Automatic annotation (TrEMBL):
SUPFAM superfamilies named in the record: Chemotaxis receptor methyltransferase CheR, N-terminal domain, S-adenosyl-L-methionine-dependent methyltransferases
Protein name, UniProt field: Chemotaxis protein methyltransferase
Upper classification of the organism: Bacteria, Pseudomonadati, Pseudomonadota, Gammaproteobacteria, Pseudomonadales
EC numbers for this chain: 2.1.1.80
Biological source species: Pseudomonas soli
Catalysed reactions, semicolon-separated: L-glutamyl-[protein] + S-adenosyl-L-methionine = [protein]-L-glutamate 5-O-methyl ester + S-adenosyl-L-homocysteine
GO biological process terms, semicolon-separated: methylation
Keywords: Methyltransferase, S-adenosyl-L-methionine, Transferase
Gene3D superfamilies from the UniProt entry: Chemotaxis receptor methyltransferase CheR, N-terminal domain, Vaccinia Virus protein VP39
One example GO MF annotation: protein-glutamate O-methyltransferase activity
Length: 275
């Protein structure tokens, strides 16, 4: 094995231990593109040297910067559309019927740059506009991500033209955003105040997060090994109230765990109900 391959192997082991992400064997290009700038700034010549430096300075900011760079993903507003329609047309009405007088709690796991939790908040607002007074106690969205830097950006609720263009309709832009200057918009306070951002590693215990009626864990599990994925799904089940719903990504399927989840066909789309 060449030095470069050995370095990459060491880095793969480090990343999986740090946050569970399993890099494919052919992903050297991804690592280079995401870490080149950071390594240049720190005067680090190779991945091997990077791993060594992280191990000798475990408390330094370098470890966090590396994990940030490797886990940061831009995402879309109302990604795949159907989950948000299913939420408004099926899941929220069902919740109101079965839980009168309770507040709806949703977890957006691995919320990345904030589009998912803010899309959820807008969807709840759209439901409330057409079903006045039905969601009496309102809703709380807990949005978590591993990246501290990403979460700080999320909290401001500000986005540029490039981010806005990724799936947001003109109507929603006008209704839910304030203009902050040329090419910049900020989410309006009522939409923002429904979302609470927390830094969280999916490998850690979920107990401090409390119980949820709905969990969105979309397009995240693809990064984990089969064993870690199964462990995360079982622990998400423990956070869901009986009958609560799990939303996965459009191309993700929940194989196994028949004692924990029941598949619900929504045409379009599939969601999973906690048994």
């Amino acid at each position: 094995m060449s030095t470069g391959n050995l370095d990459f192997e060491q880095f793969r082991v480090f990343l999986e231990k740090a946050c569970g992400i399993l890099l494919g064997e052919n992903k050297q290009y991804l690592v280079s593109s995401r870490l080149n700038k950071l390594m240049e700034q720190q005067g680090i010549k190779s991945l091997g040297e990077l791993v060594q430096r992280i191990q000798t300075q475990p408390r330094g900011g370098l470890r966090e910067q590396v994990v940030d760079a490797m886990t940061t993903n831009e995402t879309l507003w109302f990604r795949d559309t159907y989950p948000f329609e299913v939420l408004k047309n099926k899941v929220i009405p069902e919740f109101i019927k079965n839980n009168p007088g309770q507040r709806l709690r949703i977890w957006s796991a691995a919320c990345s740059s904030g589009q998912e939790p803010y899309s959820l908040s807008m969807a709840i607002d759209e439901f409330e506009r057409t079903n006045l007074g039905q969601l009496k106690m309102g809703a709380q969205i807990v949005a978590t991500d591993l990246s501290g830097a990403m979460l700080n950006n999320c909290k401001t609720g500000e986005y540029d033209s490039l981010a806005i263009a990724r799936g947001l309709s003109q109507e929603r832009l006008q209704r839910y955003f304030d203009t902050k200057g040329p090419g910049r918009w900020a989410i309006k306070p009522p939409i923002r105040s429904r979302v609470e951002f927390r830094s969280y590693n999916l490998l850690d215990s979920y107990a401090p997060l409390g119980k949820f009626d709905i969990v969105f864990c979309r397009n995240v599990l693809i990064y984990f090994s089969a064993q870690v994925k199964k462990d995360i799904l079982m622990r998400i089940h423990a956070t869901l109230k009986p009958g609560g719903y799990l939303f996965l990504g459009a191309s993700e399927a929940l194989n196994g765990l028949p004692d924990h989840y029941q598949m619900v066909q929504c045409s379009p789309g599939i969601i999973y109900q906690a048994k």
